[in-house]
Amino acid sequence: MAIDLRTVSITPLRQTFGHLARRMGADKPASRYLEATMDLQPVENYHYRPTWEPERDIFDTRRTAITMKDWYALKDPRQYYYGAWTLARGKMQEIAEGDFDLVEDLGLAAAYPAAGKERALKVFLPLRHVAWGSNLNKAYVSSYAYGIAMSQAACYASMDQLGVAQYVSRLGLAFNDLDALAEAKTAWLQGAEWQELRRYMEDVMVGQDWFEVLIAQDFALEGLLYPLIYERFNEKLNAAHGPVFSMLTRFQREWFGETSKWLDAVLKACAADNPENKAQLATWIKAWRERALVALKPVAALAFGDEADAILEELVQNLTARAAKAGIAL
Amino acid sequence: MSNAFIAFQKNDDSRCIVEAILEDNPNAMVDDQPSMVKIDVPNRLVIKRETVEEKMGRAFDLQELQLHLITISGHLDETDDEFTLSWNS
Is there a contact between A10 and B57 if contact means CB atoms under 8 Å apart? Predict the structure, then answer.
């Protein structure tokens, strides 16, 4: 009996979903990110208007002054869909937990000089309230933004800020137990240094235009605050008291570096869409950068004394350079 | 002139690597088979870390491509930034 062996190659009928093939102009395999992002939000056949805003649709492009030919141009270069994001954060958290464990096992927090602890708690710990406010503001962006590309990335950033708030709190607990948290709250509510920043946060919370909220919170404020605290203040503490503060703030530092890439890509795509966007972004950035400076000045003075103005000046220049890179001239 | 080639198992990572190769090697020919993809380029095939990173949206170590690699042909020159297969002709 002769056995005839044949190879049969079976080609799949399609490589990806129809809406993605139409977008890419060819039926080729798409990444998980694209499959989990593109055109997922409903755009038509809305039966009912929301009762809380009957003049708009549930998903409505008119909730911001920004216009886009294609809202899915605001893609995330990190390509985070839910699965990829949880994996990435899981990894970051594991490493950060390792640092916390090490600090605890070796008693590094207890051995940290009292002067360093006091400075860190004074300048750093009230920022847990900023992180919580940031969580709220980013959640607002996520709820009212148009298109899944934008709303999912904002939602992840929002959840990330809860993580940041927890890490800030845990540093406080490691340095001075529950007293640290109580003192930080009193400082946030009553301390003269913090009232401008608190006003800023609360004003952003009642902002209506979600893209403006994104600029005010993520670009103007965090674009100055994170380098100020996690780079400059961190360096200062390291030089004086050793690297324990760096170890306990690893998550935030990594988070900011990574999230800036997303934000810069969003601004670039948005500014590239049309000149009105570019002008609008420039107006918002200028206005909120001025306010962020006013809000951060007392905090910077608390952290750096006489050097505060020079440091802020440099950070503002860096922020302007970031905007310029995204095609926005200020 | 001989072809330098490389073949990968098909998965999410290797798809990005293939996209990067196609972008950096204009003469590349793709042989798409079930669960395997082979790329031929006349004389010289280069994989650039930067392009792969852009496609993947994350940092990429060129040695990671060994995880998906089936076979290669050509003289291999490996640096941190480029993975090059070529024939001296």
Answer: no
- In chain B, positions 14-53, which contact chain A (CB-CB < 8 Å)? 15-16, 33-34
| Mean pLDDT for back-to-back runs of 10 residues, chain A (330 residues) | 81 88 88 92 91 93 96 95 96 96 93 93 96 97 96 98 96 92 96 96 97 98 97 95 94 96 96 96 97 97 95 97 94
Domain regions of chain A by residue span: 79-325
Global confidence as pTM = 0.89
The domain over range A79-325 is classified in CATH as 3.30.470.30: no
Residue of A nearest to B32 (CA): A11
Let me know: does A184 contact A171? Beta carbons within 8 Å: no
Q: Report CB contact under 8 Å: B16, A78.
A: no
Q: What is the DSSP string of A248-282?
A: HTHHHHHHHHHHHHHHHHHHHHHHHH-HHHHHHHH
- Tally of CA atoms within 13 A in the half-sphere of B72 that contains its CB: 17
Residue in B12, B33, B54 closest to A31 by CB: B12
**Contact residues on chain A for B12, CB-CB shorter than 8 A:** 31-32
Enter the tokens of residue B76: 């291999």
Q: ∠ at Cα A203 (A197, A209), nearest 5°? A: 135
Interchain CB contact of A32 with B (< 8 Å) = yes
